[in-house]
Amino acid sequence: MQVQLSGQQIEVTPALRDHVNSRLDRLTRLDERLLSLSIVLSVNKLQQRAEGTLSVTGSTLHAEALENDMYVSIDVLFDKLVTQLRKHREKVCDKHQRAVRDERLYG
């Protein structure tokens, strides 16, 4: 999976990069066929924002988190992306199971 981490009005430190990389396994455990992940970190006064766009086969998932601490923002962002990825996988599995069931009944 290709990972792009960038910052707007903030320098992406090695510690932030390590924190993001340590959270990646939560996504890769759910689906090995992830195409890319793009994360943009930004600061607006006291709000620390993390935005992420995850490309999976057949869909693009997007989430953002606003917190007072950048590390918490990254954690919340990954929580949201994991939830969306689980929902996406359930939809794909349901479609596949429905197609197999219909094939058995009508095919």
UniProtKB/TrEMBL annotation:
GO terms for biological process: negative regulation of translational elongation. The keyword NADP does not apply. CDD domains: RaiA. Pfam families: Ribosomal_S30AE. The keyword Iron-sulfur does not apply. GO terms for cellular component: cytosolic small ribosomal subunit. SUPFAM superfamilies: Ribosome binding protein Y (YfiA homologue). Transmembrane segments: none annotated. GO terms for molecular function: ribosomal small subunit binding. Associates exclusively with 100S ribosomes, which are dimers of 70S ribosomes. This is Ribosome hibernation promoting factor. It comes from Dyella telluris.
